[in-house]
Specification:
Layout (H helix, E strand, L loop, with lengths): L7 E6 L3 H12 L4 E5 L6 H6 L1 H19 L1 H4 L10 H26 L2 E4 L2 E5 L2 E4 L2 E10 L3 E3 L12 E2 L1 H4 L8 E5 L3 H12 L3 E6 L10 H13 L3 E4 L1 E9 L2 E8 L6 E5 L1 E4 L3 E3 L32 E3 L10 H15 L13 E3 L4 E6 L2 H7 L2 E7 L4 H5 L6 E7 L5 E8 L2 H13 L4 H5 L10 H9 L8
Parallel strand pairs: 1-2, 1-6, 2-3, 6-17, 8-15, 9-10, 9-15, 10-11
Antiparallel strand pairs: 4-5, 5-6, 7-16, 12-13, 13-14, 18-19, 19-22, 20-21, 21-22
Helix pairs in contact: 1-5, 1-9, 3-5, 3-7
């Protein structure tokens, strides 16, 4: 029942995947709900300039490369593609528009008030949005994250761009340098490589994709090199200068040594993201940030200030849209007096390159720190569907506890790894053993049979290798 002493029972700040989901769920539970958003459209970074538009470009560029690079010719389809970049951008924009309007519809359907403007705290239960002030019994901070800047490097969104600018390039750069070998840099670098750019990735660490399983990181590097990406690992950028439409980068080994220069038409700065907390007025409610600039919460997503909650990229944990969505549902249910839980040990991550890269749970390295493990691997080249689809790259890896056989982590590189990983996440959520997966019947021929075979390999008995 709505509390009439406040304007709202729940006021969510931010309409990204965490915020809009929290608002909709709260409204579904009978709470009078509003969502404040400073953008002109709903959906946050993910829908407007992140997950959705990047996948639209990734998918389109995959088609272009398949036609141009010989994959279609191998299957008897001979074509000579012509790139219409303007139209490719148009379909991206159309996808974004349709989905953001879909959230507007869901807000109307669930009677969520959209408060347009930038929000800041005036008190624990008072929030100013634009020029108006509102009161709420509960306030949920879901302001997301933004690009981490590289000190000394100015992003002009023309020659030096961030992930937003990399989606808007009006022409294919001849040479592109990506600073950062993480998910976003590899995805966007892949788009422009497929469309014709010479792409060099500069990563400070000695392997790509920090946080992922080491076998995956090493195999990914081999695949990207084979595709034509130049990789400079263990390398730091010491300077970027722009003259006209060209950029010159100075780089040197991270461990020290002689440097070199790189020339580029476009430089993508992609070294991570940081929580959006500036301008929220957290000092007005006595809420401090941790050393990483995040808001600390308890298991229920409550901050130390009663009535103030936080979810998504502003709190510790992976900065992933689906993690924020699950937290949005959980926090709304907790506010409503229910029990909202997110199992942070089972949150899958996906890199939407080609092939895709996905993982859930512990890496082999992390699992071994906790105790003895058993590992099973199965190559995609031995999977019948991957073979017939001319998709031989990659593998599936299952990590299980040596004593209990409980699955601790699953990692895979495959054309549809992002879809395949859902099976592994569900299995782990139910506490499955590798034997449980191995003795579950999988449809044939499918890519997912590789998960079954990798699970069988944990005890040394795969069939097709």
């Amino acid at each position: 029942m709505a509390d009439q002493t406040y304007d709202y029972d729940v006021l969510v700040i931010g309409a990204g995947p965490g915020g809009y989901v929290a608002a909709i769920r709260a409204a579904q539970l009978g709470l009078r709900t509003a969502c404040a958003e400073s953008r002109e459209t709903l959906g946050g970074t993910c829908l407007n300039v992140g997950c959705i538009p990047s996948k639209a470009m990734l998918h389109a560029s995959e088609y272009f490369e398949a036609a141009k690079g010989g994959a279609m010719a191998e299957m008897g389809i001979e074509v000579t593609p012509k790139l219409n970049l303007e139209k490719m951008h148009a379909q991206r924009i159309d996808a974004v528009g349709g989905l953001t309007k879909g959230i507007e519809f869901l807000f109307r359907k669930n009677k969520v008030d959209w408060l347009k403007g930038r929000a800041s705290f005036e008190g624990a239960h008072a929030v100013k949005v634009g020029d108006k002030s509102y009161t709420a019994k509960n306030v949920v901070i879901a302001t997301g994250s933004s690009v981490t800047p590289l000190p000394g490097v100015t992003i002009d969104q023309k020659v030096v761009v961030d992930s937003t600018g990399a989606l808007e390039l009006p022409k294919v750069p001849r040479k592109m340098v990506v600073i950062g070998g993480g998910v976003i840099g590899l995805e966007l670098g892949s788009v422009w490589r497929r469309l014709g750019a010479e792409v060099t990735v500069v990563e400070f660490l000695d392997q790509l994709l920090p946080g992922m399983d080491m076998d995956v990181r090493k195999e990914a590097a081999k695949i990207f090199k084979k595709q034509g990406m130049a990789l400079k690992l263990g390398t730091k950028v010491t300077g970027v200068s722009v003259k006209g439409a060209k950029a010159t980068l100075t780089v040197e080994p991270a461990a020290g040594g002689a440097g070199e220069t790189l020339e580029a038409d476009c430089v993508l700065v992609s070294i991570g993201r940081r929580p959006n907390t500036d301008g929220l007025g957290l000092d007005a409610i006595g809420l401090e940030l941790n050393p990483r600039g995040q808001i600390e919460t308890d298991h229920d997503f409550a901050t130390k200030v009663p009535g103030v909650w936080a979810i998504g990229d502003v709190i510790p944990g992976p900065m992933l849209a689906h993690k924020a969505e699950d937290e949005g549902i959980a926090v709304a249910e907790n506010i409503a007096g229910m029990t909202g839980i997110v199992n942070h040990d089972v949150i899958p991550g996906v890199v939407y390159t080609q092939p895709e890269i996905a993982g859930v749970g512990l890496t082999e390295e992390a699992a071994k720190e906790r105790g003895e493990v058993k590992v099973g691997k199965f190559p995609m080249m031995a999977n019948s569907r991957a073979k017939t689809n001319h998709e031989p790259d990659g593998f599936v890896k299952v990590i299980a506890d040596a004593k209990t056989d409980r699955v601790l982590g699953v990692w895979c590189i495959a054309s549809v790894a992002g879809t395949m990983i859902a099976e592994a996440a569900l299995a782990m959520e139910f506490g499955a053993t590798s034997e449980d997966i191995a003795y579950t019947c999988h449809a044939h021929p499918t890519h997912s049979e590789a998960i079954k075979e990798a699970a069988m390999a944990v005890t040394g008995k795969p069939i097709h290798m």
